[in-house]
């Protein structure tokens, strides 16, 4: 997983990787996460015991209007970080992008 917001008081920043260590049983509980150091993009299995663990609480989002109704979301500031599309990564700082090009899909090869 990775964080979607900044929490400077806990030294947690947007895009920083983390590992959820347990799921909450109550709706208002904290989610314990092990935090990867900033800038590290690969989580090794043997590193999990040395990571710092913090509790993440739900954050309140903006008010959304839909016709005459208004709603507000309360959600954990975490998102799944397994794979991303080009559109989803816009605005993120990414050191390298792995890709594969197959001869079947030569859309932009200039032929």
For the record, give the distance between the C-alpha atoms at the N and C termini, rounded to a whole number: 40 Å
The number of strands is 7
The low-confidence parts are 105-111
| Total number of helices | 1
Question: What is the share of helical residues?
Answer: under 10%
Strand order of the largest sheet: 2-3-4
* Dominant shape: globular
The main sheet comes to: 3 strands, antiparallel
Can you give a write-up of this model?
It contains one helix and seven strands. The chain is mainly beta and 111 residues long. The protein has one domain. The relative contact order is 0.18.
Summarize the entry for a quick read:
This protein has one helix at 86-89; strands spanning 2-3, 18-20, 31-35, 52-56, 59-66, 69-75, 78-79. It has 111 residues and is mainly beta. It has one domain (2-82).
Task: Provide the fold topology.
Elements: E1 2-3, E2 18-20, E3 31-35, E4 52-56, E5 59-66, E6 69-75, E7 78-79, H1 86-89
Antiparallel strand pairs: 1-7, 2-3, 3-4, 5-6
Descriptive labels:
111 residues, mainly beta, three-stranded antiparallel β-sheet, 1 helix, 29% strand, globular
């Amino acid at each position: 997983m990775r964080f979607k917001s900044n929490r400077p008081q806990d030294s947690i920043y947007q895009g920083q990787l983390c590992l959820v260590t347990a799921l909450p049983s109550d709706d208002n509980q904290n989610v314990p996460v092990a935090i990867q150091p900033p800038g590290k993009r690969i989580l090794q299995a043997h590193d999990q015991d040395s990571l710092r663990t913090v509790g993440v609480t739900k954050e309140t989002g903006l008010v959304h209007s839909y016709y005459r109704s208004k709603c507000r979301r309360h959600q954990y500031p975490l998102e799944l970080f397994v794979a991303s599309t080009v559109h989803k990564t816009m605005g993120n700082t990414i050191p390298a992008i792995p890709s594969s090009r197959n001869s079947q899909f030569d859309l932009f090869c200039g032929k």
